[in-house]
Predict the structure.
Amino acid sequence: MDLGIKGKRGLVTASSKGLGLGCARALAEAGVDLVMNARGAEALETAAQAIRDDFGVAVTAVACDVTTPEGQAQVLEAAGDIDILVTNAGGPPPGMWSDWDREDFIAALDANMLTPIALMKACLPGMMDRGWGRVVNITSQSVKSPIAVLGLSNAARAGLTGYVAGTARQVAPSGVTINNLLPGIHDTDRAAALDGGVSRQQNISVDEARSQREATIPARRYGTAAEFGAACAFLCSQHAGFIVGQNLLLDGGAVNLSL
């Protein structure tokens, strides 16, 4: 399917690996020129060069911490007038409710709520003026079904979800859509870290921890960054203009909702 976005310009944060990289590669395959961001310069440039080589699109790599005002300014200056924004950030560490203090919540909010909001506020006016734009926020299945040990993530991402619900309806008349993609467990470094935690806690191997988690997923496997990226690219396409303010699960059926 031709997604109709060849020649568009997109910004994808936290895109040197994992789900962010999956989204960047899928957009590049559709012909989108990219601004990619991550904190690690070497991994970011390696990922960016691979995309240039594989898809022939222009890629600008900006290595910085986008959760800081300085990093946001640097990324936005490099991005210029973009048509597509994909926000992504690593999740906060797991733990128990009694583990977290105010500073932990502030850090989670900065990364997983306030940074996406800041980037949207910066990019939405231009999209609205031009009459077209796509925003996809990568959040979590925990928005639909909170995960006990991920309380920091639950709180921050739920706040972002509430913000998007209202904002998406306000910008839609200008041809701009905002939607959230809610990943379940995908085969990324984040999943490996969570499996490692279970391995240590239960004194089992990492493979056993992964097998346990896979057994809880109706698809009986972890998702892949490539299939996640393909879903993101569709939401950014010309065909998705009637999808507004939605929270779309990509979780292999792990969350069982009737509505």
Summary: The chain has a mean pLDDT of 94. The longest helix spans residues 102-130. The longest strand covers residues 176-183.
